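Might you be able to consider the sequence and fold that I enclose below?
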Amino acid sequence: MSEQVKKPIKITETILRDAHQSLIATRMPTEFMLPILEKMDKVGYHSVECWGGATFDASLRFLKEDPWDRLRKIRDGFKNTKLQMLFRGQNILGYRPYADDVVEYFVQKSISNGIDIIRIFDCLNDLRNLQAAVDATNKFKVQEGRGHAQIALSYTLGDAYTLEYWTDMAKKIEEMGADSICIKDMAGLLVPYKATELITAMKSATKLPIQLHTHYTSGVASMTYLKAVEAGVDVIDTAMSPFALGTSQPATEVMVETFKGTEYDTGFDQNLLAEIADYFRPYRDECLANGLLNPKVMGVDIKTLLYQVPGGMLSNMVSQLKEQNAEDKYYDVLKEIPQVRKDLGEPPLVTPSSQIVGTQAVFNVLMGERYKMATKETKAVLRGEYGQTVKPMSQEVIDKVIPGEERITCRYADLLDNELDKLEGEMKEWKQQDEDVLSYALFPQVATDFFKYRQAQQEKVDMTQADTKNGAYPV
């Protein structure tokens, strides 16, 4: 029998970021992660995704933790494994576009605190909004020899999104100087045989490694990975089984077992993976018991494929309709979503474009007249503040919502002045480390509250003031 050519599939583990972001609203505390890092480091992962996305906001806002501190502690725990983060292009991890000097400084600090791979995406797939982050990563790589810029394309369906569109994008990404490409399928819309077509086409268009990221929401993700691996994808994103499936990723152990004994065999040790799963399982049970993990997000929602609407967007919409006592309008809104998306130039539905399209569709239905009332975000999209859409936006809607206003055709960040010094000036009384200015830049109010909390913890308590009997400590 001829010797198989081995091409083991590489795996990025998401349990420390996207898995718990998707299932328990990013609430896993750092202290819980640390004891298992040494075992995770032995697996042989391509990378471990552990930072970025919503972890930054959730750490400061809900967990009262310094996200930079989390990154440094995780870095200490992984001696042999690359660490990866998710980065929203010009929006970094916040919700507005930042000036290039802030983007560059954030990239620099992320890598110097321990990140190896930065996955950068834009909600409109407007590559101009990714260039500053890619350039910053490459600049750091030249200086320090570390850093990998991965551009993620938000996967979506629609007339504009042909195979030619995706292969064109792949070529442009290579020209931009990125190190690899990720297909980021946030709603689980990529079905198995389409994955074969997509990966085959992209592989013929670029030499860059291609990674695939999807969610189990629509129930097809494991099969999609199987076909993608057979078509030559280089890396897949998976989650350890206690936090896999549902709105998270396919399970790491299942994918490892699937490819065992084939040319794609990962070589991972299932006994080691079982020990890691055993560590996370009691925490999953605790989350189910205290309601942090809602069994609803664990199932399959085929509506995702029917309406091409990500799960989070659907639940958002349902609660908006509930507030207005208009739950009977659910199907009207579902019909309106593709219309609004078309009016706005057919953007992919991912944060924040999914929220913008969904909310506008709710308004259109409840008002009984389309665009009678437009949100400020809808206006910003129409003005071009979020970037260039794949298709032109509806002129009729532009005339109705922002009549006579000037529209932006350049990269929006070109209109922004450097802002680091100004931000530094605003928060200097709280600054204890360089990174604090970046926390403040992204979430001014939330970060300030955290800085106050941190100071109270550090100054501890005057024991003469403390009421030890009742355990009350003035802070």
About this structure: The CA atoms of residues 222 and 250 lie 6 Å apart. The mean pLDDT is 94. Residues 270-289 form the longest helix (20 residues).
